[in-house]
Amino acid sequence: MELDPAQTALVVVDMQNGFCHPDGSLYAPDSEAAIAPCADLVDRAREAGATVVFTRDVHPPDQFEDTHYYDEFDRWGEHVVEDSWEAELVDKLDPQDEDLVVVKHTYDAFYQTELEGWLDAHGVKDLVICGTLANVCVLHTASSAGLRDYRPVLVEDAVGYIEDEHREYALDHAEWLFGELTERDDLMFA
């Protein structure tokens, strides 16, 4: 699969200490295993001149105090709280000045963030998506991208997950409904 770097962004979803480090509250070994593949994609995208976007799932401590129904802390426990070590990107993924870092407060990196406007302003049409968790933030960000008429391409061997079946569900659902799948070795920025 060849993608034009001038209209492509690599979106690295939530590769944060809280999910990828053994001391994180929502640590998953397969999220940690996705660090090196994501870092490889970042290097390749930068080298080709493609845009690099990192998302960070960040929750103010009182975010869910007055919610009616949607409360991630009830579902997952407190995690990636604002200004915490958990909320920081893993050390191996070091954003550069030219990269966009999107702070989000839900599973979807487009919901109430600057992401869509920024991508449009930079002429981005294709999104290569990697990161964690496959069936949560990766899936919801990719589906939201497809609904906004971006081309979401999920990199199968660069996504973290908790259970194998979660990964399989997310990738199958994405390919069936709104996106495309590839592996790192089959992806070229050209």
From TrEMBL:
Signal peptide: none annotated. The lineage of its organism: Archaea, Methanobacteriati, Methanobacteriota, Stenosarchaea group, Halobacteria. One of its GO terms (molecular function) is hydrolase activity. It comes from Haloarcula sebkhae. This is Cysteine hydrolase. It comes from the Archaea. The keyword Hydrolase applies. It holds the Pfam family Isochorismatase. Keywords: Hydrolase. Residues 8-185 form the Isochorismatase-like domain. InterPro entries: Isochorismatase-like_dom (IPR000868), Isochorismatase-like_hydrls (IPR050272), Isochorismatase-like_sf (IPR036380). CDD domains: cysteine_hydrolases. The keyword Cytoplasm does not apply.
